[in-house]
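USER: Note each token:
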Amino acid sequence: QSIHYPCALNTITVTLATNTPLFAKIEYPGRNAIRPSITVSRILGAVVDDLEGDNSKSIELLTTKNSSVVGASRVDSDAEYFLDDDEDQNVSRVKFTKGVAPFEGEGSVTMYLNDDAPDCCVPGDNDFRVKFSFNVYNPATKQDPANPISITANGIPIIASAMLEDVGTKRPMYILEPVFTRNVIAQSTANPCAVNTITVSLVANVNLYERCDPKITIAGLEGVEANMSLAVNDMGSPVESEGTWYEGVGMLV
């Protein structure tokens, strides 16, 4: 994955190869054609906006490439391998589906092979691979998935198996717990009845993304005079220039 912050737009990159070709279409006399597909599932907490009634949506592939070793180097080439649906010829798109019980917290992407693309995905003599990437939003809370992401194929059946995942913060759908790494508060004066400027300095270990409507709450500000003018001074920070004061509990949001 590209980023492990809560609510961030996260690019998931998949690399695969098979031991047998996955043809775009399999036809037998007197039978309906079979269109093989690949499904990557158990994408814990992945969020895609504006899902349709069946909890799915066609999403764009950011990249779709093949990769081979040429000489002593690995060379990538653009190739439109996938479609989002077996009836809809939307090239370089996949179908994201939100899971249902007991997998309601997990998402999956399903892709069908493109008739116009080379056969997928046998390594051969040049260590051939197919690589693609897509975007999802991260959930708002920390997580460390207990189950690895899984991959399977239908049409030419390949049983579901755990994917080899990157490690550390690059492990797919590992989401860091947000904390303040610096939180300092000070005042300008200790004199009774004086106008007092409260200065707060904050640093977080993650970006606070607008899509999750983050709010910063400072509590314990006791003894502040009621009906006073209140504003957050703009110090080049991304927070709004005004806050909401809750007098009874001495709290600023």
About this structure: DSSP finds no helices and 14 strands in the chain. Residues 220 and 249 are 7 Å apart (CA to CA). The first strand starts at residue 9 and ends at 16. The chain has a mean pLDDT of 88.
